[in-house]
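Exercise (ungraded).
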Amino acid sequence: MRLLLPWVLNIEGMGEFKVHRVRFFNYVPPGIRCVAYNNQSNRLAVSRTDGTVEIYNLSANYFQEKFFPGHESRSTEALCWAEGQRLFSAGLNGEILEYDLQALDIKYSMDAFGGPIWSMIASPSGSHLLVGCEDGSVKLFQITPDKIQFERNFDRQKSRILSLSWHPCGTHIAAGSIDYISVFDVKSGSAIQKMIVDRQYMGVSKRKCIVWGVAFLSDGTVISVDSAGKVQFWDSASGTLVKSHLIANADVQSIAVADQEDSFVVGTAEGTVFHFQLVSVTSNSTEKQWVRTKPFQHHTHDVRTVAHSPTALISGGTDTHLVIRPLMEKVEVKNYDAALRKITFPHRRLVSCSKKRQLLLFQFAHHLELWRLGSTVATGKNGDILPLSKNADHLLHLKTKGPENIICSSISPCGSWLAYSTASRVFLYRLNYEHDNISLQRISKMPAFLRSALQILFSEDSTKLFVASNQGSLHIIRLLEGSFKHLHTFQPQSGTVEAMCLLAVSPDGNWLAASGNSAGVHVYNVKHLKLHCTVPAYNFPVTALAIAPNTNNLVIAHSDQQVFEYSIPEKQYTEWSRNVQKQGFHHLWLQRDTPITHISFHPKRPTHILLHDAYMFCIIDKSLPLPNDKTVLYNPLPPTNESDVFRRRTAHAFKISKIYKPLLFMDLLDERTLVAVERPLDDIIAQLPPPIKKKKFGT
Amino acid sequence: MVEEESVRVVHCGGSELNFRRAVFSADSKYIFCVSGDFVKVYSTTTEECVHILQGHRDLVTGIQLNPSNYLQLYSCSLDGTIKLWDYLDGILIKTFLVGHKLHALFTVAHAEDSVFVTINKEEPDIFQLVLVKLPKFPSQEIEAKELSFVLDYINQSPKCIAFGREGEYVAAVRDFYLSVYFFKKKTTSRYTLSSSKNKKHAKNSFTCVACHPKEDCIASGHMDGKIRLWRNFDDDKKYTYTCLHWHHDLVMDLAFSVTGASLLSGGRECVLVEWRDAAEKNKEFLPRLGASVEHISVSPAGDLFCTSHSDNKIMVIHRNLDTSAVIQGLVKDRSILTGLMIDPKTKALVLNGKPGHLQFYSLQSDKQLYNLDIVQQEYINDSDLIQIELTKAAFGCFGNWLATVEQREEKETELELQMKLWKYNKKTQGFVLNTKISMPHDDHITALCFCNAERSETPTLVTASKDGHFKVWILTDDSDIYKNAVGWTCDFVGSYHKYQATGCCFSEDGSLLAVSFEEIVTIWDSETWELKCTFCQRAGKIRHLCFGRLTCSKYLLGDTENGILCCWNLLSCALEWSAKLNVRVMEPDPHSENVAAVSWSSGGSDLFVFKPSEPRPLYIQKNITREEVQWGVFVPRDVPDSFTSEAYQWLNRSQFYFLTKSQSLLTFSTKSAEEKLTPTSKQLLAEESLPTTPFYFILGKHRQQEDKKLNEALESELVQLPLTENIPAINELLHTPAHVLPSASFLCSLFVNSLLLSEETRSAEEIPDDVSMEEKESDDSDEENNVTEHVQDTQSAALEEDIVYQLSKSEEKELRKFRKVDYSWIAAL
C-alpha cells in the first residue's frame, strides 16, 4: 500500500497546486470471462468473473454505457445475444438469466436443472437457446417474447459440455466435451458423430483433453480448440480430422469466427491471440486453406474469451484488459476504429470525496473504504515531493451484507453522511466524528420504493439526498439529524423506463441535472420540484455532468469527447459552447480513447473547468482562445524558459497535465490543493495470479 | 618439357565454394557450385570433383540448370557472358554475350529461350532484374542483347530474388520492403515493413526470400531472425503474413522443399531448421553444422538438401536430415596466425582452419584432407565473445610431433596461454595429444621451432616469448606404474638482458640455436646451452631469422623492421653482407640453399630468390601481387621439374606458395593455367573413357572373346555385312547426345541408307581417319585442311538435295554438321 504523497504541480497560467497523489486505492478489476458481440446494435457485452456484466457501445467510442452488478453466487460462464437485442447469461449456479437492458435489471432467472451450465449459445435465427450442462445434457430452450421455455433434451453425453456451436443453417450443432466432440442433429436431437480428440501433448499423453471451444462452419467443418494447445479442423460429415495446428504450449481457451467465415481468432492461456485466415492456395484457383497469420500478444494472462466483430478482434481474460484490435485490412479510414484499444478501468466513478473533511470514499465490489488524507506543512516548487506531517488514515472499512455487489456509493460533502446501494437495497449511514474516533450509525427503515439505486448524490450543503432508481425515477430525500424525510419523486417521462445513471446538483442546491443512456439531460428545479428543461439530445452518451457555481451552467461531456456548456437559467447553450462547436475541438483532443469521468470547478475562478479521463487532467480556461489544429495541444514546454511573447502566443484554453496516470479520480479540495487517485497497472498485475511461465530466450 | 616460358603467378585452388547456392542435377547425382572463374561439378555420393567447367574470364556469379534440358547448365559471370554447358561431358556448348556485368542468374521453366539476370546500372548500388532472350543461332558465340526490364532497385544477392509458382511472379526484397511482380498482370505490388528508429523494428530488414513451389506463398527472412510467410499478396489490402521465429540472429537463407511441405532455414546458429507445414511448433533441427549456414538448396528430385557454410564447405543432407556428404574447400574466413606449413608426412599445406582447428589441405586435389581440433571446445558463434585462438604451430621430427600454441586475451593483463604437443599415431594416422602445458610463458609466445636435425636423439623444442625468455623443451620419459609414456618438460630457460625474445631458429644440423632478442641475435650451443656469440646490427628489431642450408650452412640470415636484410658468417662471426630490403616473408627452401624473400612496398610485393653465400639474387620477380604477402612456404615437388634456364632452377625441386592479405593462395608456375589445371574434359570426351571397372574386365573381355568367335563363325557362313562400328554415320548417330539429334523420322532414311552395302571399297579406308579427326575437332578450333570436306556453313537448301543421292560418306558429313547446327528450324517445320 502506497502512502499519500503530496506533490507540487505547476500548471502554466493556473499557478501552483499541492497535489495529494493517492495510490492506496487498492482496486483490482475482476477478470473477464465472456464477451459477446452484437452485430445489430454494434454493442459488446462483457461478463466478468464476479458476475458483473458490462455493455460497451462500440459506435460510441467504446463507451461502457450500461452495467449489471455482480453477485457472489453467480459466476457467468456463457453470455449471448438472442432475438435481436436480448441478452442472456448462464453460469455455474445452473441458472439462465435474461437482462433488462432498459431498466438495467435482471428480468428473470431460470434453472436449467442440469447442474452448472458451462456453455450457452443462441440459434442462428435467434429463436432458441442451447445450454450445455455439467451432467452432459444439452438442453434446448425456446425464446418466447417475455421468457424462455424449455423445449427438449438432446442425447445425454457422459461428461460436461464445455462448448457449443450451431451450424449456420441451424440443422446441426457441435458440442465440445472432455476428450471428444459430438455432432447432434437438431431435429432428432441425437448424436450423429463423435470425434475423439488426441490427448497427446508434445509427445506426452495428458490425463484429459478438454475441448474449450468449437465452431461449426457452413461447409460442415468443425473447428475445435483444446487444452493440448491444438486448433483442429474436422469434417463433421465423416467425423475425421482434416488438419491440426499446434499453436501453444498451454490451453487454447477460446475461439470466435467472423460472420463471413473467412477468418477466426483463438485465444491461448499464454496470453497470445492468434488470427487464422482463409486464403486461396493460388491466385487463380478456388481452393482455399486456413492459415495461421498474425499472433497478438496484448495479454499477460489467459485469454478466456474472444469475439470477432466485422472490423476487429476482441479479446479478454484474466488480466482484466478488454482488448479491441482492429483488422487493418477491414478499416477504411483512419479514425477511432483504426487504433488498438485496451480498456481496463470502468467508465464510472468509484471514488467520492468529502472536501470539507478531506475524506475519500473508495468503492469496491463488496466493501467501502473511507480514508482521511494526510497533511503537510512544507512548501516547495514544481515537482517537489513534500514530506508528510500526518499520514493518511484508514478510517473505515464497511462490508456489505449479502452476496450482491455495490452499484454506487457516495459520501456527503460535509463528510457526515454515507450512502451506498446494491441491487436490492439502499443503505444510508450517519458518521459522527469525535476527535480521531469515528462512529457509524445506520439509518434504518429506508422507504420501500428505494429498492435499488443507480446513482446517489448529496447536495452541496449535505441536507438533501438524490437517488436515481433503476425504474427511471428520481427521489429527493431531506436529511435531518439522524433521520430523513422523503420530499418528492420525479417520475420518468411518460412512456420511457430508461434508467438515469448520472446526476449533478448545482452548488446552491436549486438545480438537479440527470442523464440516462440515450435521451437528453433533464434539468429539474429542486425548489419548485418540477422539470425545468431538457438539454437537446445528442448522439453520443453522456460520460460526465456538472453544474458550475454562481452561473449555473451545466457542463456535459460526451463519449465522443465533445464538451458542451448549457446555461440552465437561460435554457440554451452558452456563447462559449457555441464558439467551441463552431471552431471544433483539436484533433488530438478528439482522438483520446478514454471518456471524461469527472468534471469540477474552481471556486474562485469561474472561467475554469477542471476535467479528467484515465490518462490526463485538464483545466479549460474559457477566457483564452481555443486551440486550432496547428497548435500544440499538449504543452510539453516547461513554463520558464520561453519568452512571455511566445508563451502568450501559444497559450490556449486547454491546460493538460499527463503526470498522473492511470487516473481514477481527480478533484479540487480547495483553491490550492488537488487530490489525484492513481492506480498503476503494475500494482494490479502484482495482485493477479502469476501467468503461465514461458521461457524467454537469452535468460 | 616446356622451356623458356616466363614464370607467372597463378591462383592455386582454394577458391570459395560457398559464394552462391549450389545446384543439384535433376537426378541428384551431381552438385554444381561456382568456384572463382570455374564451375565445379561434384558427385553427391563420392564427394569427388568430377569436372571443372572453365571458360569464364571473371568470377562466375550464377548457375542454373537449363529448364528445357536437364543435362545442360547455364552459368553467368561478371565477364558479361552466359555459357551453356554439357556438364556430363564437361563441354561448353554455347556462349551468349550479354555485355553487362551479370550478378545473378535465374531460369524459369516456362520461359524456355530466355533467362533472367541481375545487371548493374550506372550507379554502383542500383541493380536491375532483366529478362535476356537467348537467340537460337547455330554459332558458338552469340550476342544476346535483347534485354527486357523486369524489376528495378533490387538487391545484388540472388538470395533476395525468388520466382514463384510456375514463374507467375517474382519476389524481390531489399532493405525494408518486398516487391512482387506479376508477369501476367504486369503489375508490381510493394509491401513495406516499419523501419522506424524505434528499437523493436530496427532489425526488420529483409535478408532473403523464397517462394512456395505450389502455393501463392512467399517466405522472407529478416535481420532479427524472423521468417515471415506472406500470403494473399496479389491484393494490396488483404495481404497477410505469419511469423516464424526461432533464429536469434539474421536468417541467412531459406528454401522450400520440392513439394512445398517444408521450409528450410539457416543462419549463424549453425543449425539447419526444417519447418514442417509452415507451423511454428512443428520443426526439426540439424544442429552442430560447424559454421554458419550461408546458402540452402534443394535437389529437384527432392531427396537431398545442401547447405553451403561460411567455412567454405558444402554439406549434402538427406531428406531425413542426415548428413551424407561433405565437400570441404580451403577454410579462409579467419586470419591466418600460424602461417603456412607443410606436413612432412602427407605433404599437405597446414594452416588455421575453422576456429580453434588446424586444417590439412591437399594442394594437388584442392581439397581439405582433415581438420585437427586443437582447442577442443564447442565453438559458439557470437561476435561479443573473445575466442581462444590458435596462434602458433610447428611440425617436428619429420612430422612425428606437432606443437601448437593457443591463446585467449580477454583484457590486456589477462592472458591465457596453452601449449599442446601432439604425437603422430601411425595406427590412427592422426595426431594424438601428448602433453598440455598451460602458461608455458608469462607473455605472448613469439616463435616456436623444433630441432629437426637427423642426428639429434631427443626431440627438442624451443619457444621464444615476449616475457624475455626462451625455453627449451625436451621429450623425457614420463612412465609410471600404470603405463609407459613420454612427455615434454622444460629443460632450459635462457634470456638476454631482459630483452624480449622475438624469434628463434635451429641450424640445419641442430648444433646451434639462434634466438633474436629485439635488435640482437644470440647464438647458443644446443649441447650445453651456452651463449656462443651475439650479433647486433642496430637496425631495428629482428623480424625473421633463418640459417642457411647445405653448402651455405655457415650463414645466418636476419631481417629487421627498418628494412635491412643481413647475412652473418658464423665462422668469422662477422656480417657477410647486408641489403636494404623491406622483407615481409623469408622462407628457406628445405631442398636447396635457396632462400625466398618477399618484400613489400606501396607499389606491391616483389620476390627475391637468393643464396646466402652471395648477395646477388638468383631470381627477381617484381610486383608478384599488389597486396601485401603475409605468409609463404616452399612445397617440395613430388617429381622434380627440370628447368634448364638458370633463373628458374630454383623451382626445380620445390614450389613456392604464398598467401596474401586478402587470403588468396598463389603460386608460381611456368605452364599456362589451362594446362596446369587441365581437367579431364578432353579425356572424358572420348568414348574410350568408359570406366574400366572390374565388371569390364570380367564381362567385357569375355564378351570380346565371344564376339570374336561369333564373328569368325559368321564370317564363314554369311556374306560380310558392314560392321556397324565402322560406319561413321552410325557412329555419329550413336555418339551424338540424344538431345541434340534431329527427330527420328529425319534420321531414319540416313540410317537405312548407311546400312546399305557400299559399292566402293575405298571409303572403308578413309572412314577411320575421319573419325579420329572428328574427335579432335570437336571444339571447332582446329581447321581441317581438307577443303573438300570442310563444311562452309548452314546452307541447308543445298544440303537437302545431297541427302538423297549421297552415299555414306557424305551422310556422315551431314551428320557431323548436325552437331554444330542449331536445330531450332526443325521445330519450325
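Further reading is listed at the end of the chapter. For now, observe: Residues 575-583 of chain A form the longest helix (9 residues). Chain A touches chain B through 19 residues (CB under 8 Å).
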